[in-house]
Specification:
Blueprint: E1 15-19, H1 23-34, E2 38-42, H2 51-54, E3 58-59, H3 70-91, E4 105-108, H4 112-127, E5 133-135, H5 137-143, E6 154-157, E7 161-162, H6 165-178, E8 182-184, E9 189-195, E10 198-204, E11 207-210, E12 213-216, E13 236-247, E14 258-260, E15 265-268, E16 273-277, H7 291-304, E17 313-324, E18 330-333, E19 339-343, H8 353-366
Parallel strand pairs: 1-2, 1-12, 2-8, 4-14, 12-19
Antiparallel strand pairs: 3-7, 4-6, 5-6, 9-10, 10-11, 13-16, 13-17, 14-15, 15-16, 18-19
């Protein structure tokens, strides 16, 4: 049984306020509390009910890489390699299992057009050094016998894994509290207080909370916090994704790999749930679950895995990806002393959690910007 550690900070330790309790806010808070900082995380609702809770937990630096993301690939692959040690550290601080799975990921095609696109992506990703294997239809059906018999070839990525994002969230929250951190739920931050280009703290309703360092990690809501100069308001918008879950027989799951199709992905969980996602919608914070979205997801999933027809639907939901103008994260300091950003991760928040936690905590504790994130600060948007 993991026990709560004694607070190692003294009265002179800098006070850190983190806005947002997703995987990035909690991950950074946990690392900083381990170092002895006084860390408070503020969340407007229940912890992590934003993009972290809504995600699918895929750690797919390889098969998700698209043309134009060659530079971002350096960041995502490094974080992907950090995951095993990140999990070992979490296990030392909590008994909650994040359910990491390493069976790998399949990307499949059903017709010649899809096969042509699959071959293009395979060649593109392979040239970047991503380790992939081309499988013919017999090899694919050997790995996943319940797939549609019309499945053609597929690409297998052994290094693209998954974690159950909801259990990860609970594990990070527990590890953070066990390290001395404090979580304040139902505390909506109205503004960040700045004087003479120096952060002073945050305002919650009419209450002022003093802080030496403020970390803005509020996901898709990061641009709505008052008090910031226009030049450092993160250019982050919500990109909606609708999803659903079916319930498989936990003893006889229909698939064991993460499977990407041209129009959806399927993610099997340890509890028998089958996650199906996700739409990509520019509709602000509209949280409606729509018939068209569910139909398109279910149709794509049924086309891939016909035996889902009798499975019960156990949950539908949507989330809002925090997306910057170039789809890459915004990490590091700003022109305001003491104000640090960790937002804009788009679809890579879970994947980039270890790197984000380690680099931002390193910057806050040493004052040095780690080389991995030098090109990902907000300054790149100023022109």
């Amino acid at each position: 049984m993991k026990t709560k550690s004694k607070n190692r900070y003294n009265k002179d330790s800098p006070r850190i306020a983190i806005i947002g309790s997703g995987v990035c806010g909690l991950g950074i808070g946990w690392r900083l509390s381990q170092l002895g900082y006084r860390v408070d995380v503020f969340e407007s609702e229940k912890i992590g009910k934003g993009a972290t809770w809504a995600a699918a937990g895929m750690l797919a630096a390889g098969v998700e890489c698209e043309p134009g993301e060659e530079k971002l690939l350096e960041l995502t692959t490094k974080s992907q390699r950090m995951w095993p040690n990140f999990l070992k550290d979490i296990e030392k601080s909590t008994n909650i299992n994040p359910h990491y799975r390493d069976e790998g990921t399949l990307v499949i095609a059903f017709n010649n057009d899809e096969l042509s696109k699959l071959r293009f992506n395979y060649k593109f990703q392979s040239r970047l050094g991503i380790e992939l294997e081309w499988l013919d239809k017999e090899e694919v059906r050997t790995l996943e016998p319940h797939l549609n018999s019309k499945t053609l070839d597929a690409v297998f990525s052994k290094n693209d894994h998954q974690v159950d994002n909801r259990f990860l969230l609970l594990a990070l929250a527990d590890a953070f509290k066990n390290s001395g951190g404090r979580i304040h739920e139902k505390h909506k931050v109205k503004s960040i207080k700045i004087e003479k280009e120096r952060v002073k703290g945050i305002v919650i309703d009419s209450e002022f909370h003093k802080a030496d360092i403020v970390l803005l990690a509020a996901g898709a809501h990061s641009s709505s916090i008052d008090g910031l100069p226009d030049s450092i308001i993160p250019p982050v918008r919500p990109v909606k994704g609708q999803m659903l879950a079916l319930q498989m027989d936990i003893n006889r799951p229909l698939i064991k790999h993460v499977i990407w199709t041209p129009n959806s992905y399927l993610v099997p969980r340890n509890d028998g749930r089958l996650i199906i996602g996700a739409t990509i919608e520019e509709s602000g914070f509209n949280s409606d679950i729509t018939a068209g979205a569910l139909y398109s997801l279910l149709e794509s999933a049924w086309r891939t895995l016909p035996t889902i027809e009798e499975l019960p639907v156990v949950e539908t939901w949507c989330g809002f990806r925090p997306t910057s103008r170039d789809d890459a994260p915004i990490l590091g300091p700003t022109e305001i002393e003491g104000l640090v950003l960790a937002t804009g991760h788009h679809r890579n928040g879970i994947l980039l959690a270890p790197l984000t936690a380690d680099t931002i905590s390193e910057y806050i504790s040493t004052g040095n910007i780690p080389p991995e994130i030098e090109d990902y600060n907000i300054d790149r948007f100023l022109n």
